[in-house]
Every structure is written in structure tokens, then in C-alpha cells.
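Hi support team,

I submitted a single chain yesterday and got back a structure, but I'm not sure I'm reading the C-alpha cell output correctly. Could someone confirm the output below corresponds to the sequence I sent? I've pasted both exactly as they appear in my results page.

Thanks,
R.
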Amino acid sequence: SYGGTGRSGIHVEFSALSFYFRSYGDLTADELDAVCAFLHGRVIAQERTQLYQLKTCFKAFRSVAYRNCSLCMDDLEESRSQALKELLRDYFDKRRNLDLSKHYQEEELDEEEELNKCK
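Hi R., thanks for writing in. Yes, this is the structure output for that exact sequence:
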């Protein structure tokens, strides 16, 4: 029973590399296909969301990182620390949005366009 206000009679559990669902009652072949298509779409959206989140974290850390640890051994640069805090706060605020896969697709297209310009 995902998302909606009522119970669908279908119970879905996600685990490490697979998911299990149990249906109460007999489903027709078309109904089973519809359930499988829905679950596949949900898995793809979740995968894209997590990839987007991973890339966002990577970009946040890279944007405040030093090229070499010797550059930051003596002094603490407060501006980088503050910038990282803001980036992480923004990340966790956006993370509440369950489906960021659209952002990931847009970003992926932008990257492809950028690569094509370089060719």
C-alpha cells in the first residue's frame, strides 16, 4: 500500500537487492503486469534519486575541498566550512522530496550536452 490513502491489497517490501510483494486474492495477468510495471518504475525513480543525491554530495564536498592537505594544515578557513554547512543543509532539505529523479535526468542531459560540445 504505497502512497495512496486507501489500502490496495498489495504489500511491498524492499530489501538489499530485491523486493517481495504479496497480493491478497487472485490477480489477472494484466493486473500483475501493471503491478510489475509500477514497481519497476518506482525502483528506477528511487535509483535515479539516490544517484542524484550522491552526485550532489560529491559536488558539495568537491566545491570546498583543498587540492592538497598542506594548504589547510595551518589555518581554518571559516568560509569553506560555512559553505559546506549551507550545501549540506540544502541537500537535506531537498532530500525530503522523495522523487528527485527528474532533477537527475535534467542534470544528465546537461552533462551530455556539455560533453558533445567538447567533441
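A quick pointer for reading it: Residues 1-5 have pLDDT under 50 and may be disordered. Let us know if anything else looks off.

Best,
Support desk
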